[in-house]
Task: structure prediction
Amino acid sequence: MHDHEAVTRTAEAFHAVYGTAPTGIWAAPGRVNLIGEHTDYNDGFVMPLALPHTTVAAASARPDGVLRLHSGGADGGVVELLIDELRPAPAGTWAAYPAGIVWAMREAGLPVGGADLHYESTVPAGAGLSSSAALEVATALALNDLYGLGLDPQRLARLAQRAENAFVGVPCGIMDQTAAACCTDGHALFLDTRDLTRRQVPFDLAGERLQLLVVDTCVKHELGDGAYAQRRAGCERGARALGVRALRDVPYAHLSEALDKLADEPVVRDLVRHIVTENHRVEEVMSRLDAGDTRAIGPLLTAGHASLRDDFKISCAELDLAVDTAVAAGAVGARMTGGGFGGSAVVLVEEADAKAVTTAVTDAFAAAGFVPPRVFTAAPSAGARRLV
Ligand code: GLA
Result:
């Protein structure tokens, strides 16, 4: 959906639902993560990029403390809530995400009131592409403007993470919300999740005659089901056992000593190995991109996948097949992206090979009897913005 098309469609739908024109229209993108997986709750490094797919919110403020929410993609009509009565509601519906934003802003003492909101989205849900962060950040940006809060994008991302952690009940890190809020066109975003310093890293795929394919395995990805929280708890246990504040503080050069200390706890040891090597891979990817050698990041992506599969143990047969087939068919590199247990893989390919790699992956899924994957090209796109 192009921006002008999104504006027309969302404004018309808002009018049909609420009977008036919206005050404004805002958009926030989904993301893929290039490298740096499960490092964000270990104070480590990540490098996501925004997708062209967005969640678009048309919104107007209301003076009466009522929050009305409606989505073009969800059944069930308008959800009506009183902002004074918002309480954390784990395992709620889609409306818990925007309601959580209002709750988090009020909890932070920000002068936010009621609103009417209507959403349209092209971010595939449950595909590991951060549709929930897109919904949260589009809402946060809309309220920021409607109520003149003057918050910067990183602050909006933190409020969105707070909403997801405390209101929706998913113990996610800060990567997805920061990607939705802060990415820029043509760049991957390097983020140090400890001090939240950011760097826009040029990622000029078209100029290099490369493409980034996203393979949505259509295996539903659920972060609320406990496996994510379990990995997180294992990492925290590892940090305690090693006497560091977070696994970010284990230097790559001291990895083997750290692993020796964890010999009695093989599960934790493997989690630690993934986090420490993954932080190192993020730094390596950044320096190769800085050196203008985009192709050289391919082996690091593929090594990252092996680490998520073997050490962090969050891949699945469909993701492994996508990655292995893509690499065997000539991809420069490939890995699962996002939380894991399904969702999507990213594949870096020569432009000239994109078709053949796509066909190879699709054929392999058919041969294995898997649901056909959805494959599309992802140009690094813009972060959250006001459209009108
Ligand atoms: C999910 C979470 C993120 C991050 C990734 C894994 O997307 O929301 O905070 O932990 O998984 O890298």
The mean pLDDT is 96. The longest strand covers residues 45-62.
